[in-house]
Amino acid sequence: MTIDLPLPQSPGLRDVPVSDVPANRKDFASDQEVRWCPGCGDYIILAAVQAFLPSLGLRRENIVFISGIGCSSRFPYYLDTFGMHSIHGRAPAIATGLATARSDLSLWVVTGDGDALSIGGNHLIHAMRRNVNMTILLFNNRIYGLTKGQYSPTSEPGKVTKSTPMGSIDRPFNPISLALGAEATFVARTLDSDRVHLTEVLKAAASHRGTSLVEIYQNCPIFNDGAFDVLKDKEEAEARLVRLEHGQPVRFGDREFIHDAHADNPTQAFEISRLDDGTMAHVPIGIFRQVARRTYDDEVRVQIATAKHDFGDGDLAQLLAGSDTWTISGAQS
Amino acid sequence: MTKQVKQLDRVIIRFAGDSGDGMQLTGDRFTQETAAFGNDLLTLPNFPAEIRAPAGTLPGVSSFQLHFADHDILTPGDAPDVLVAMNPAALRANVKDLAPGSTIIVDTHDFTPRNLSRAGYADNPLDDGSLDRYALHQIDLTTLTVESVKQFGLSRKDASRAKNMFSLGLLSWLYGRPVESTEAFLVKRFANKPDIRDANLAALRAGWNFGETTETFAVSYEVKPAPMRSGTYRNISGNLALSYGLVASSVQSGLPLFLGAYPITPASDILHELSKHKRFGVTTFQAEDEIAGIGAALGAAFGGALAVTTTSGPGISLKSETIGLAVSLELPLIIVDVQRGGPSTGLPTKTEQSDLLQVMFGRNGEAPVPIIAPQSPGDCFDAALEAARIAITYRTPVMLLSDGYLANGSEPWQLPDVDGLARIDPDFATEPNHETEVGDHEFWPYQRNPQTLARPWAIPGTAGLEHRIGGLEKADGHGNISYDPTNHDLMVRTRQAKVDRIAEIIGPLEVEDPSGRARLLVLGWGSTYGPIGAACRRLRNQGLHVAQAHLRHLNPFPSNLGEVLQRYERVVVPEMNLGQLAMLLRAKYLVDVLAYNQVRGLPFTAAELEDVFTTTLEGLHR
Questions:
Q1: What is the distance in angstroms between the Cα of B20 and the nearest Cα belonging to chain A?
Q2: Helix (H/G/I), strand (E/B), else coil: B83
Q3: What is the per-residue pLDDT across A224-277, written as a single tens digit (0 to 9) for each?
Q4: For residue A296, what is the nearest residue in chain B, using CA coordinates?
Q5: Which residue stretches of chain B have pLDDT < 70?
Q6: A61 and B230 in contact by Cβ < 8 A?
Q7: Taking CB atoms and an 8 Å limit, are A96 and B292 in contact across chains?
Q8: Is the pTM of this model over 0.90?
Q9: Rg (CA), chain B
Q10: A324: nearest CA partner in chain B
Q11: B512 vs B533, B534, B546, B562, B603, CA distance in Å?
């Protein structure tokens, strides 16, 4: 792919061509009617993303959104970029192939707690382990919405839903802990309701080279309304939210330490991820971890370039002949 | 001592030993020597699914059969003329396949009471007269090998491991095979282990000399080179030919090759092979599972790569949902199924043709996928190129249906003229394709080519062609989500029509009926081509009339297939399944075909098919 335009400088978008015409949020809105339930947190996230994307200054045709199945996975239809609404849980795998085949794209995966952590758990952890250059937006509403209200892998224990009339009995995932355990290089959490914080996190995630996992607490007004209300009420939020900033002190209860998101060892980040014991008494938001590590897709390209450099471009006739041939001359029929 | 040299027109040799004895390597090397000598040949490796089953037991026996001749042959042969057995288990597992009068060469070293009982022998078959009907050569190959390499100071265990080279040397002498290519191979293979290299070379040479100098073998044999079309040849296995076909497709289309795969027998060698060819721009992605393998491939296809996923039947089961998505997205994708025995894990290392209905129908909804099946190891090259051409031209996933026999079997292959290979035009969309009523130009991702019904392939990075696709039903043309009943009916029929139209470019089914008087047609598909062809020849040599046709395209069928079926009084369909093609033919053409089926994990023998065809002919004449 030849690129004849200036490129943005951030590592994550290094190879993506920039636009010579400034864009605005309208340029990123598709002509499709948005069809989430009234009051859904997805509207706020969509608006934030549409407002944020122009700030990257990229060519719109080089941005791709890939989703799985679920309410959140309708997201790509509403953005006027390239997009694929795929199948349940597989978006990280599909995006891995696309990122590896094409370095010149800004690649986004939109997924939910069921899509990413239940049916697609395997692809999620392996994408993070490989560190493929993409940003994964995990909309966590702690419920299955599209299938009308069953508990999800992030629902609190004892959750009474249609499929668990006596309360759910399995223990939920902590998506941040899971991502850190899966060797993710960029792990963050934010809230649908905090546009400024959400946008800051998105910007950092897009700039990161490698897999960025962004958990977004998102309210489902129909099946799990108010799941995050304690974090949205001004006074409550003050006491409960632990805002993470690299190099800044983290305070909660009677503890205080300096947050080092760039530490090679993820132990501290993991410890922070465990601050929320499920009661939301202390909920850290912001960037837990942000470290530089080689990405899978870059390494693939390096190996191909190295092979071409060391041995030259492949020659098909030579390949087919191999090392053991024999020739039958015209005498025989 | 000058020994007599006897002329033969063809020979079938089977090497058998423990799976750790190096029988596959021995067979491979004998094959290379035979190919270099100019015989026509076909091979049949047969090995257990266990990597190293307990030594000396029947489940641990691995074998390699090679058929070579001074004329063109179609199968790896039915009954071996020569069996090389490295231990009692190898003898016991294979002796039942031998015709009386054939030759057995045994390594007597392991014929100890313990090993005999492990193999299930109550008495030593070398002493009890049970092998009297064979020409039996008892040689302590292990001790001879250890003696011949003792100058290199190896442990007894390492020294005895060279016994496969000793036996290769002996057989090479017996059939006048040149060993230079094997010597060169050993020098390269053990370049970093000089003592092992030298021991193997010495054992090879000692085996040859043993044949030449001892009186055990009074005669050696010669099988003259086979007349073949002039050209340059190499020996090639199906998996290798298929890999090369994919690389060639990449070169001819100018699209970088992307393979997403999860290791699975017997398809893994395609992943191994393609991973070597990075200088062709090939990306091989070893995924976390079968689903991710095809998912990544589909993502790469969206990005404009020549996307491939390789697997066997169990993997197809896991990939089904993504294949359905690919049908809906209408993106080019090659899905290689190297079939093995099923159901479930089944017989991982054995061959079968029982995935036909799975790849034809194994998806939810109406999800048609073209199916192409190669008929010989070398043909896997052409079949891969054809799969790529159809996938790219029609924007569709394509099934390439190989099997374990084709994958691991090998044959001489005439190198194609690379300059003569046709180009494949990806024909990416570059501009809007629709004008609105008010004169705006838009891109409609489901506006079709009227001839092929293919939709445009617009890849990310193409300005003005931003669009969204997905697994939800799309409206004809502009491609936005649509739940409209009439539209869904139209889209389902259009996807089917697109696949049906491929029949326009695949050409008619050709029938081989040399006398033109056949009343019986034998119709096969895939790897049964060899044994069916060999059996038909046998009938014709007896003055009988039989017609043969072989399907390369299982979906869509060639447009003249119905007419061909009607032309014959009887149609026999031999398959290594319980009648899957036969079911499709009966359903589609209302022809009462006669299914002949076996599922033993092995290819048909020409002899059994000869019997079946003869009996069927007799029925017609009655």
A1: 26
A2: strand
A3: 999 999 999 999 999 999 999 999 999 877 888 899 999 999 999 999 999 999
A4: B285
A5: 1-2, 622
A6: no
A7: yes
A8: yes
A9: 27
A10: B234
A11: 10, 13, 9, 16, 22
